[in-house]
Amino acid sequence: MSVELRGMRIRDGFRALGRRRWVVVGLQLAAVAVLLGALAYAFRDAWEEAQPRLRHADPVELGIALAITAAYYLLFTIAWQRILRAWGIRIPYFLALQAEMASILAKYIPGTVWIPAARVAALRRAGIRDTALILASVILEAGLSAVAGVVIFFAALAAIGVEDAPILPLLAFTAVCVVGLHPRVFSPLARRVLKPFGASDFPPLPWRTLLGVMGFYGCTWLVGGAAVFFLLRSVGGDPEWTDIPYLGGVSAVAAIVAVLSIVTPSGLGVREASMYGLLVAIVPDGVALGATILNRLTITIVEAALLAVGAFAWKKRPDYTSVDPPAPQEE
Q1: What pTM was computed for the model?
Q2: Cys-Cys with 289: which of 46, 174, 181, 214 at CB 3.0–4.6 Å?
Q3: More confident position, 98 or 164
Q4: Which is nearest to 292 in space by CA: 221, 227, 224, 228?
Q5: Are 144 and 213 in contact (CB under 8 A)?
Q6: One-character DSSP codes across 7-26
Q7: Burial level of 136, CB count in 10 A (0-12/13-18/19+)?
């Protein structure tokens, strides 16, 4: 089958999905309703303990968690900028922040197509129209971040000795990511998959860039773990400072599950179930459930606030530089 024919079939598939988008939306909303109902029933005992903890949550600890969560997203955006810069696209920080937050919030809209579409649309408004390259950078960002998070999680498991963790599924997922992210695999695969969007070439990124970005993502997960640490404290938990790497790994695993769950918008319910199941290994049920609920509220509030900040700052600083993506040089 020719590349052109495959491209036409992919485009036809997207058009067919678009014509049936309300079916997809309905299925997702139904899945969310069923899942949340099942979770409410399963966690009814923990909810009785979590309710008073949530009502009397410490505002100082909660405020610290909000600030750290904001720092996590602000740092996360830098890594995506670095990926784009390695492919020759240089954008201002606040434009990158606006695009990043728009795509993250788009996860709440039923229909997974809105997630990459929001980021593409944000950059198109600034005159950057290389859709295939933007999509490839989003895939690379997700893969490198996921691998870094799993590494942090496994290292923390070995340090604190938590049992019954989903080790085998995570190992399988990580192996697939590592193979897929290898420059000799990622570049031709992305070129083939993104051909309908105008992909022509994706020069392999230097190993120094890939490992540097992945190491940076590992640091951001530790920041995310610190945010969960203070969320636990805000509802009366007493985690140890040494638990922060584990909490960062928990955040990473929950985020991975949310991304893989294409049925529920933003992994609503699925992410919370995963996070709760891992938190109860180190804190009581009520504390784990309270922190899990606050985590969803916290990340949503911060994402919306940073989207507004990025949009406002971008309007105040409209200059940007767009460079055709050259083959990256070995560093």
Answers
A1: 0.81
A2: 46
A3: 98
A4: 228
A5: yes
A6: HHHHHHHHHHHHHTHHHHHH
A7: buried
